[in-house]
Amino acid sequence: MFSKEAIYLFLISCCVSEIxxxxxxxLIGAKSGTNRIEDVKLRFYNGQTVDQHVDIPLSxxxxxxxxxxxxxxxxxxxxxxxYVEVPDQESIKTIVNAYLQTKPGTNVILLDWSEMAQGSYTxxxxxxxxxxxxxxxxxxxxxxxxxxxxxxxxxxxxSLGCHVAGYxxxxxxxxxxxxVKRVTALDPAYPSxxxxxxxxxHVNAGDAEFVDAIHTDGGGYGAxxxxxxxxxxxxxxxxxxxxxxxxxxxxxxxxxxxxxWRSWQYYxxxxxxxxxxxxxxxxxxxxxxxxxxxxxxxxYMGYGCDSNAxxxxxxxxxxxxxxxxxxxxx
Length: 330
Hints:
Layout: H1 4-14, H2 16-23, E1 41-44, E2 54-57, E3 76-80, H3 90-102, E4 107-112, H4 121-145, E5 153-158, H5 160-176, E6 182-186, E7 210-214, E8 230-234, H6 258-272, E9 278-281, H7 285-290, E10 299-300, E11 311-315
Parallel strand pairs: 3-4, 3-5, 5-6, 6-7, 7-8, 8-11
Antiparallel strand pairs: 1-2, 1-4, 9-10, 9-11
């Protein structure tokens, strides 16, 4: 008998876009995309809402420095969306709004690689992720040379976007000798990337000075193994996350993606409240549950994560927003 996880991996690797097209799933999986680096864009949010933005071709990234509101001395968040997502996706709006509303002055940039994140996951999107990363690194290198502070650059990826983030930071490090301070991986995509192969490499602790990962659908759409400097496993890091349906058979439907999506929902909440998600170090979720002194060695998951964090951390969450339980979550 095949495990539930194996069936999900087969579906997302082979035919998920066709399934979404037939079933009317929430994500636009029927689109094939152009698969052209030339169609990758940077979206800079130059106002107080996600509706206020400037789109710039990736190849002309230096134009960012000429946008009036772009602050060269401020922190820059560089967000990379996942498979079959588009700029108007709820995940993107939620993350961006959290920054715009609570971290004014932060430069928020979306890498819109939607034209290369469509179609077949296995035969198109994962290979495009490998292509996009070095192209992004080339342009970020130019921006850094023009004055973008490397020490204030934070790259965040969701799902397949985590591996684009990994390729980007890795290329900056190996080709341009520029080490990104922090990469955050929100439930990094599992299929095709774990374990590493000679063809595809997943985001890992060596890609940046500090890599933190939030796992919410381990063994399903998300990686079931540690991948960062510090790995956070809310509710054990597996599906189903509290509040998500037990049975959701349609791939890439809202219900089916519920646990996977919790990663960006938790992170966005942490942007608004950096101390919302204390987490306890442990060898496993079982050891976490048995630990009588969970506050010892505690670190915060998400935006407020301490760059000194190392290893695996566990916590529990509520079943609906607000998801954070504070110290009651450990």
